[in-house]
Description:
This protein is α+β, with helices and mostly antiparallel strands and 159 residues long. Strands 1, 2, 3, 4, 5, 6 and 7 form a seven-stranded mixed β-sheet that branches. It has one domain (2-147): Thiol Ester Dehydrase, Chain A. The termini are far apart. It has four helices and seven strands.
Amino acid sequence: MYIKEFEIRWSDLDANLHLGNSKYIDYMSHTRMSFLAENNLGLDVMFKNNLGPITLHEHIHYFKEIKPRETVSVSLEVSGHTEDGRFLMFEHNFYNSEGKNLAYAEILFSWIDIKKRKIGIVPKELLTIIESFPRSNNFKHLTKKELKEKIVIPNDLPK
């Protein structure tokens, strides 16, 4: 399990004086990018391979509010990926200093081809890195069928 610590700052609070929901996303994103960089898949490696990190969906469950000046630990575990490494599932948990679980999130992550602006192809050397990531206890290889079940089709406003 990978863990990053954060102190809740005044600027992280919402109108209810607890951690605002957009800050959960910021903390998780920072944790993921730190994890990737520390596991030989930082932005320099991504850009060298014409890839950029993208989040396809984030689902957060809030259990207990987080208040100012608290220190929280944000964990990251890889709970799945496709055989080709194009899609990954990350799990994040927020813990207080006593180890109490304050929030849980599941993230579907992928790579964008920076030039084509479509889901990118993961080169073999990067797939080797992805396959070496530490895995959660409930890790599984994601199938096309499972990914299709997660697809939400846009519903535009009528003209």
